[in-house]
Structures are given as C-alpha cells and as structure tokens.
Amino acid sequence: MDDKIENYLVKLERSLIDGDWKLFEFSKTWLQSFDTAAGVYVIREEGKICYVGETGSLRKRIKDLFDTRNHSLRRTIGNKRFLDVKGYEAGTASKKFPQEFEGELNQILEDNFEISTIVVKIGRKELEERLIEKYQPVYNSRGKRKSEEKPKTYSLDDKRAVHKNAYSPWTAEEEQQLMDLHHKGFKVKEISETLGRNEGAIQSRLKKLI
In this predicted model, what pLDDT tens digit does every residue of 123-147 receive, in sequence order? Predict the structure, then answer.
C-alpha cells in the first residue's frame, strides 16, 4: 500500500478510536448530535470493539439502530439475548421483536454499548475493511477469519459465568454503590469485581453518571 494512503488511514483510525465515544441513548436529541455526512462508525460492547460500519450518512445509519428491521447489529444482539426467553420471536428485516423485548433491547444497548464516528470524504470503505481486519469485531458478518477459528459471540450465560450481573438493568441502589466506590478511590477493576460487571460496563456507567 502506498505510504501516503497508509498514513491517511492510520490518522483516520486514531481519530476514530481515540475520539468522542458516546453512550447509546434512544432520543431525538442524541440522534441529532451525529453528522449527516458520509463516514465510518465503530461500536463497543462493554469497552471492546464489536462492530464496524461505513455509510453515506452517519445520522441516517445510526437512526437505523433504533429499529430492529433496519440494522443487522440490533437483530443479532436481540436474537442472541432473547433466544431462550419465553415469548421470544425472532427479529428480522421485516419484523421487530415483541414489544417487551424491544424496550429491554434498548436498555441493553444504552447500558453496555457506545459508539464513535468520523466523517470520511474519501476512503471510508478502505477504513472499514482495515478496522474489521484489525479488530475482528464479533458482530460483523463480513471480514471474519477464513480459517476454522472464528470469532465467538458469547451468550448471556457465558458472560454471567464471569460477571454475575452482566446485562442486568442498573438499579438506583447499584448506581449509588458505584459512585460511592468511585469517590472512595477504588479502581475500575476492583469495582468490577464488587458489582459483578465487566470493566467496560463500569467505565461506561461512570461516564454516564459523572
């Protein structure tokens, strides 16, 4: 690859990864905070990059995350989380999840996911492919390893085997405990062990509360 192109993509990647990460918030105000221009977006789950996408309009594509029918990431997360729950019906490109699951899915995304975006006039496809190759995001259907070793998306039970409260809704009491531990100077790792949540989830919640 030409050095100029490589340096250009490296600069874009750094700006995106080190940029302004926003916690999910399903509101009109939050949606309007995104640029309408073409660009690339990266999503983290509990602090780890899990999805990369490119689009001709960042705001329009992020709006798609509000509707199960319009974004594969939302469908994938919901289908994995609700598969064994009574009343579950698969979300598809033509059908949403049952209403009670849609609300819970919004909460899961707000509590555990965050997004960073960057406007890219030239080379957004190349940047997307670079990031998929580098980070192997588990929810991207394209760009996965061609070998037998494939990225694993962990089930809720798998996550709770490590962090017992993973993906449980945050209660007011738990948020207060989080803030108390934070103000007392406890490290994120220590708070994670105490509350039974992933370190990324702790960092995301602190960002939302502080």
Answer: 999 999 999 999 999 999 754 444 3
**pTM of the predicted structure, to 2 decimals:** 0.80
DSSP 53: E
Say if CB 69 and CB 93 are below 8 A apart. yes
Outline where 43-140 has alpha helix (H): 58-64, 72-82, 99-112, 124-135
Do both 39 and 130 map to the same domain?
yes
Same-domain check for residues 114 and 75:
yes
Residue 144 lies in a domain: no
Name residue, tokens 């033509």. 94
Residue 78: in which H helix or E strand, if any? helix 72-82
61-108 pLDDT, tens digit per residue, is 999 999 999 999 999 999 988 998 999 999 999 999 999 999 999 989
Q: How many domains does the chain have?
A: 2
Spatial CA neighbour of 54 closest among 160, 131, 149: 131
